[in-house]
Amino acid sequence: MLSQRLPESLPAPADADGLPPAARQWAIMSLAIGVGMASLDTAIANTALPAIARQLQTTPAASVWIVNAYHLAMVATLLPFAALGETIGYRRVCIAGLALFTLASLFCALAWSLPSLVAARLIQGVGASAIMSVNTAMLRSIYPAHLQGRAFGINSLVVAVAFAIGPTAASLILSVAPWPWLFAINVPLGVVAFFFGRRVLPATKRASHQVDALTAVYNVGAFGLLILALGDAAHQASMTTLLPEILGAALCFALLLHRQAAHAAPMLPVDLLRRPMFALATLTAVCTFSAQSLAFVALPFYFETTLGRSPIDTGFLMAPWAVLVGVMAPIAGRLCERYSPGVLGGIGLAALALGLVTLLLMPDAPSAWDIGWRMGLCGIGFGFFQAPNLKAFMVSAPPERGGSASGMVAMSRLIGQATGAALVAYCFILSGQYGARYALALAAGFAAVASVASFLRMVVVRVK
């Protein structure tokens, strides 16, 4: 596939309809490596927390900041980077993100204490945010319009599989190497992605508006405090901790909306959210990733605690979901070039809801087959949703607002995952041993709401 020679110089002017086939393959490889690393590192550190805590001689509670710092940095800076991409070019933001992520990965591998590792993870999260904020917008300049469905399919495949195999990949690395290799392995991959990105990622048109620094500060405060409050609530923090975070987030959101009210291209894209198709794509994504997060956090507890399966068995039982996502994402990407994203997404999410309900209704002592086909149905449904929904995001935004649309793609995914993880914690707090079952029921509900939201796009189209 990548047998063609690397182009000698930057290909394709900004107004070209995609790159030539040879350059396109190298460009998508560069993006896929960056997106894959950023997505994988969202989940991979969770598995390594016990080993890291032991070696750095810190408590499990303190070690959670290794995960929280990365997540906070990503969510807080996504929309500012997306806005910056519109003004200075998506290519520059993406390449800078690859460089920063790679360098921060090296710092993570060399960390000697918990504070040094948390600081490195914070920088790594900023780099990942820069990549994820513009990668979907970059796809529109890499692929011609009639092939963008398959581009979204490839992107969906990389994100979904990276998130799904994160724990398994971490376990495999830790079985043969110490925890710093979880981060060191990013360095050669990042160098390759950076090299190819500089050579083949195309320049894009730049917007005339400027990024307001104070708006960016309000945005960082609003989303940073929101995610911090969700995480602290999930860990049963006291109201003396939660209340200032909630009030601070509300204040920052109010200041953000007031500050950007007269801006032609608001950082928090309320102008795009007023578009019914874009708003429905956002609602669909948030609900779907909440369902995925609820299921992925609850199912290991269900398999191991309720069903008495071993951790190794759990890894294999989770695999059908990831495998079927990998099979379906490219197929859905091609189909959405011909059929309505609303219909395709609605069908896929109905299948996901049905799969989650069947998991909830399993017999008391299910066989591997009983579990496997149900997990496979969930994977088929989830894989069928992503590429059509990505297309719905991007086509419902004007080309000059592609950066903001791309930022909202990543933001809706991260907000959904954070919401799902927090709700799982609440389910266990309220329901004890039945927490996993309640979490699966909630996941099925979220998937059903997402399916309805996706189908509603057909109504919006008819009204227009």
UniProtKB/TrEMBL annotation:
Residues forming the Major facilitator superfamily (MFS) profile domain are 27-462
Q: How does it sit in the membrane?
A: Multi-pass membrane protein
Q: Which UniProt keywords are present, listed alphabetically?
A: Membrane, Transmembrane, Transmembrane helix, Transport
The UniProt entry's GO CC annotations, sorted and at most eight, read: membrane
Q: Which PROSITE patterns would you find in this protein's record?
A: MFS (PS50850)
Judging by the UniProt lineage, the source's domain of life is Bacteria
Pfam families for this protein: MFS_1
- Cellular localization per UniProt: Membrane
One molecular function GO term is: transmembrane transporter activity
Transmembrane region positions?
26-49, 61-81, 93-112, 118-139, 151-173, 179-201, 213-231, 237-257, 278-303, 315-336, 343-361, 414-432, 438-460
InterPro entries annotated for this entry? MFS (IPR011701), MFS_dom (IPR020846), MFS_trans_sf (IPR036259)
Descriptive protein name: MFS transporter
State the species of origin: Massilia psychrophila
Q: What is the lineage of its organism?
A: Bacteria, Pseudomonadati, Pseudomonadota, Betaproteobacteria, Burkholderiales
